[in-house]
Fold:
Amino acid sequence: MTNNTVNSNQYQANIEKAVLATILFDSEVLETIEPILKADMFYLRAYAEIYRVMIELYKKDHPVDEDFVLKNVDKSIANESSIIEVLSANGASNVEHYAKEIIENYRRRTLVSYANELKIQHQDGKDSIIMLEDLAKKIDNLDHDTGGKSLNTVHDMEVYYENLPPLKKIPTGLMVADAATALDGGIEQGQFVFISGKKETGKTYFATTIMENMAADGVKCGFFSLEFGARQYIKKLHEKYPHKDNKRRVAISQNVYIDHETTDINDLERQIKKMVKKGVEFIFIDSQLRVSNAGFKNATKAELLANVFSRIGLLCQKHDLIIAMVVQTSKSDHDAEEVSVKGCIDADHECGVWFHFLKHKDSETRTILLAKNKQNFKRRKVDVRFDPDTHSFKIIHEHDTDNPNINKGGNSIQPVVTQYEDDPDWENEQTMIDVDMPYDYQ
Structure:
């Protein structure tokens, strides 16, 4: 593509119309392009005005269609004929690429304007050193405005974070996670949480219980119920809380956004960003096996998974989200303490907290292995027992991976053993997870 082609008026108009037409067809693409594409980067003023209104409507959760756009644009800049021009254009299958073309054209136009300014300054006899300094500042600003990143010292970032609220810990409502020897009060924001184990160990119920506990406490949550679907989840929720006015059921219904159809990571990202706009702080994705990656057609399985985990991990960091996902481990890992994601051995690099469930043979006892902060040298182990009468788990033994009495950090941990026969009030204490009732999730 030649420079003349890039800078032709017709080419720029066609590219801009394609982007605007795509937004009218699917306004969710603004989640991808709005952070990088600004209205003043458009070549035609009418299209810039249309784009500005589209962003304004989207941020207010108003429909982004031709009627609302026409109603809100400045009629002295854009009118009905401008909208018709956009509607007559074909949408772009890769709108981000088209957006980058608009940015590239904007850079070129701006650089040409700088060159014209230099020519005038030269004719006016301006000092060359001053001309170079002015040009350097303008180019630096252009680079920053069109996607370049400014450099920050540690002090700059210290000041930035001092003006932000500190990351908070959100309690899970489960003793095995919130105990001082575990996560000390809950899961900190910005964490990617892995949950793994064999079938019928209670992974999904463990995660949904955390989600429901948070929702009952007023935390907005998201649930991608890809394994069992929304209908099954709602059915089991009603079985668990038969009365529709039950306070816990009402809180869960109001505070959990559920999606059982979105499986591709590109669409998943957009849905998660929409949830963030709604105030969601915790998201559960069930499970890794149902997440596809259409953008990596010729990649290996390891590359596909690495891309998925990396993108979810970045969402956690960028939006201070807690995202939990059921992940698949290899058969050799089921009875071992060094767990890894099947097909992607480096996936644990993205993981901040990992719960791994081990089921004891011929027993309803489980061992929950907890790894956190990517510290492979220290893993907490807790033994829990299933009670068939109440269909719940309870801690029966807590111990260090290597030594049941000594924490590798130097603090003594005395094992806690609870016998049901000697503890008549145990049913009123903090229970763990319910495998068979009221959910069929395994």
In short: The chain has two domains: 3-145, 169-428. The chain has 15 helices and eleven strands. The chain has a mean pLDDT of 80.
